[in-house]
Design brief:
- By secondary structure, this protein is α/β, with parallel strands linked by helices.
- The chain folds into 2 domains: 135 residues, Aspartate Aminotransferase, domain 1 (Alpha-Beta Complex), CATH 3.90.1150.10; 233 residues, 3-Layer(aba) Sandwich (Aspartate Aminotransferase, domain 2).
- The strands form 3 sheets. The protein has a 7-stranded mixed beta sheet with strand order 2-10-9-8-5-3-4, with helices on both faces. Strands 1-13-14-12-11 form a 5-stranded mixed beta sheet.
- It is globular, with a radius of gyration of 21 Å.
- Bound molecules: pyridoxal-5'-phosphate.
- Pyridoxal-5'-phosphate binds next to helix 3.
- The site of pyridoxal-5'-phosphate has 12 residues, from helix 3.
Length: 395
């Protein structure tokens, strides 16, 4: 017996639900790549990215996933043997650092837990101890999609300043861009990283980098530059050079439409929608947690991300059967956990193109799964989410 025939619900932290209008915008023949319409698409997206990153700096589009954008950031600003400090809070900063190590960068990782954000005081202390200014860049993710933590980027900026250190500050916003406030220039971030397939509501395949003045200055002497990633090459006069080859046309068709959807809603409204849906999710999880088998992964309530919620499930009960049930019976795909949390947690994404009925439907399907499998949980979780939204979204 199932109740699954109907729309697909994708509640994983990337790729996210693609709006029908974005899919429709992509459904067209290829066009020529040297002049005309496609050039306007490129200009629109490069400008649109400045608006979402909140920067007057330069933006670059790569036919790559987020990992490509990570590599682009390092290759354009650093040299062989340079040292970087990676601030870990789950998995993603660590993996970014690993890419650097293979490129010939000396990587120091500041260890973190999978349950807490990066500690700015520890960053300040480490940078103060770097009297010889050996550390050339500090890398961090705004939202770590493995743990579900949000790092306090302005506080980390303040820690770098308090240490009087001039390392480049690089922030991965792949799981937070257009999901929560981000102010590249306001927070004096030197390099920002984004990707098409999360808050930006487009299929995977575009990696974005924004570079501020200090990063562009470092670029001049960086020796890890290669033709494909190179910013200077991409500033060349030919449209073809913006992509170092054939532009990923259909992804550009989709990404432009997705940016138009975001700007029509208004970026601040998009952030607020994410905050409201995240709070509703947290209201539901708090009720589930009364049964003592489920709990928030992130301990400090203020450090729980607005784009996904990582929920621990006591291993004695098993989380896989919850996810299997949600998919098999309700056609809802909730995220499995990765790394250290594999088999111990689920990741409920509320990222990108998501509204209240989608979220409540997904939460209710998880609630059904908990009931069907007799996993102890407080009852009334869905009502708590609805009650929250009914108050927070006034008539
Ligand atoms: C998804 C994600 C990545 C990786 O992006 P890919 O497109 O899979 O390479 C990197 N960082 C964060 C924070 C992410 O959420």
């Amino acid at each position: 017996m199932t109740v699954r025939t109907g729309r697909d619900f994708l509640g994983i932290p990337g790729p996210t639900t693609i709006p029908d209008d974005v899919l429709i915008a992509m459904h067209r023949p290829a066009i020529q790549i040297y002049t005309g319409e496609l050039v306007e698409y490129t200009t629109f997206i490069l400008d649109g990215l400045r608006k979402v990153f909140r920067t007057d700096g330069r933006t670059y589009i790569y036919a790559a996933n987020g990992h490509g954008a990570w590599e682009a950031a390092l290759a354009n600003t650093l040299s062989r043997g340079d040292k970087i400090l990676v601030l870990n809070s789950g998995r993603f900063a660590h993996n970014w650092g690993e890419m650097g190590a293979m490129m010939g960068i000396e990587v120091e990782t500041m260890p973190g837990t999978w349950r807490d954000p990066v500690d700015p005081a520890a960053v300040e202390a480490r940078l103060k101890a770097d009297a010889g200014a050996e550390i050339k860049a500090v890398l961090v993710v705004q939202i770590d999609t493995a743990s579900g933590v949000v790092n306090d980027i302005p506080a980390i900026r303040a820690a770098i300043d308090a240490a009087g250190h001039d390392a480049l500050f690089m922030v991965d916003t792949i799981a937070s861009l257009a999901c929560m406030p981000y102010e590249m220039d306001g927070w004096r971030v030197d390099v920002s990283i984004g990707g098409s397939q999360k808050g930006l509501m487009t299929p995977p395949g575009l990696g974005f980098v924004a570079a501020g003045e200090r990063a562009l200055e470092a670029h001049k002497t960086a020796d890890l530059r290669t033709k494909y990633w190179d910013w200077t090459e991409r500033e060349g006069p030919l449209h073809y050079q913006k992509y170092c080859g054939t532009p990923p046309e259909h992804l550009l068709f989709g990404q432009r439409k997705a940016l138009e959807i975001l700007f029509a809603e208004g970026l601040e409204n998009v952030w607020e929608r994410h905050r409201l849906l995240a709070e509703a999710t947290r209201a539901a999880v708090s009720v589930w947690a009364e049964g003592a088998a489920l709990d928030f992964n992130i301990i400090d309530p203020a450090s729980r991300a607005n784009s996904l919620t990582t929920v621990r499930v006591d291993e004695a009960h098993g989380v896989d059967k919850v996810l299997d049930y949600a998919l098999a019976k309700c056609n809802v795909t909730v995220g499995i956990a990765i790394g250290e949390l594999k088999g111990k947690a689920m990741r409920i994404a509320h990222m990108g193109y998501v509204n209240a009925p989608m979220l409540i439907g997904m939460l209710a399907s998880v609630d059904m799964a908990l009931k069907a499998h007799r996993i102890p949980h407080g009852s009334g979780a869905i009502q708590a989410a609805v009650d929250y939204l009914g108050e927070a979204v006034p008539a």
